[in-house]
Design goal:
The protein is of the alpha/beta class and 338 residues long. Helices cover 58% and strands 13% of the residues.
Length: 338
């Protein structure tokens, strides 16, 4: 592992309680390795260690949710440090390419360091504070909605039984009402946040111009979309959502049908699913596009996924060009092509 750059390159494996770090310095042949606490004081000690003698540093950090977020923010705020967030799947594939079979925190730190040395360095673009807040609210909203659905299912099952406990049924009903109140409060808080920021307010208005994206769906979509780097292309958006098509062909005999990769943000895919179904019912151009796919022999679920992907294309254009939904841009009806 050779560092031919003029700066330190570090790889950081993150866990709940500590950070395992491996750094390759230009003047040294061997890696420096150390463990730090995953706390604010540990972050400061790490930055001091990386930048001693006023060296600049590039740090690759494996994305690990809340455990890596505060570290990434601290590194980004350090004047001599740039940080790159690496997707766990990218590291998994890189480990396979390196034929690395063992896995420990220290080995992972070395692997991430090697990844940072060999692969293109893409600096992390820190989302705005309101984007972080909206994502937290939207994900909490989704969790409460799913909890309510689970309780509704339990209530339905309990009411079908002759031996059901009246006390339990009442308790489930009370909890459903409680969840509904909490859902309403979270939704109101998210709407207040959106209305307090002009950019969010405009983006939400564009999304809800689609007959299929109501206020709750717009909250969920914006909560995920606003966390993505602004420079991404529409194809990168599709890949980020895991809606890109994966082809599998080999020689003359292996030609498997294309499937979506599902490698991206599952929450974004879920947030697109119901809007796509409703848009098929209420947007003429969306319905025509769906019907065309069915006429071509596509299965209904395949056609719905295609609508989800095309709807994401439309959202990209709406937000980029500051426009409301235009059905003719989504799909021109046959009479409009004449």
């Amino acid at each position: 592992m050779v560092n031919t750059t003029a700066y330190n390159v570090a790889g950081c494996d993150v866990s709940a309680d500590w950070l395992d770090v491996a750094v390759k310095r230009p003047e040294r042949d061997r890696l420096d390795e150390r463990r730090f606490d995953n706390t604010p004081s540990g972050h400061r000690a790490l930055i001091k260690w990386l930048t001693k003698a006023d060296h600049t540093a590039r740090v690759a950090v494996e994305a690990s949710g809340v455990y890596s977020l505060d570290l990434a923010l601290a590194l980004d705020e350090a004047p001599l440090v740039k940080v790159m967030i690496v997707h766990p799947r990218a590291l998994k594939d890189y480990r396979r390419a390196q034929m690395q079979r063992s896995k420990t925190d220290q080995i992972d730190a070395r692997l991430i360091c090697d990844y940072g040395l060999r692969m293109p360095f893409v600096p992390w673009q820190v989302p705005s504070e309101e984007a972080f807040e909206l994502r937290a609210l939207s994900r909490r909203l989704e969790a409460l909605v799913q909890a309510r659905i689970a309780e509704m299912n339990r209530l339905h099952a309990a009411q079908k039984s002759r031996r059901a406990s009246a006390y339990v049924i009442n308790d489930i009903e009370v909890n459903i009402r409680h969840l509904e109140r909490r859902i309403t409060r979270i939704e109101e808080e998210a709407v207040s946040l959106i209305q307090a920021h002009a950019a969010l307010r405009v983006a939400c208005a564009h999304l809800t111009s689609v007959s299929g994206i109501a206020e709750r769906s717009a909250i969920k979509l914006l909560g995920e979309l606003l966390m993505m780097p602004q420079a991404l292309s529409v194809r990168e958006w599709v890949a980020f959502a895991g809606l890109d098509v994966r082809h599998y062909e080999s020689g003359r005999s292996v030609h498997k049908p294309g499937r979506i990769s599902k490698e991206g943000n599952v929450r974004l895919r879920r947030a697109l699913y119901m809007p796509a179904q409703v848009a098929i019912q209420h947007e003429p151009q969306v319905r025509a596009f769906y019907d065309k796919l069915i006429a071509q022999g596509k299965k209904p679920m395949v056609a719905i996924v295609a609508v989800m992907r095309k709807l994401l294309h439309s959202i990209y254009g709406m937000l980029k060009h500051d426009q409301d939904f235009d059905g003719q841009r989504f799909y021109r009806l046959p009479t409009q092509n004449a």
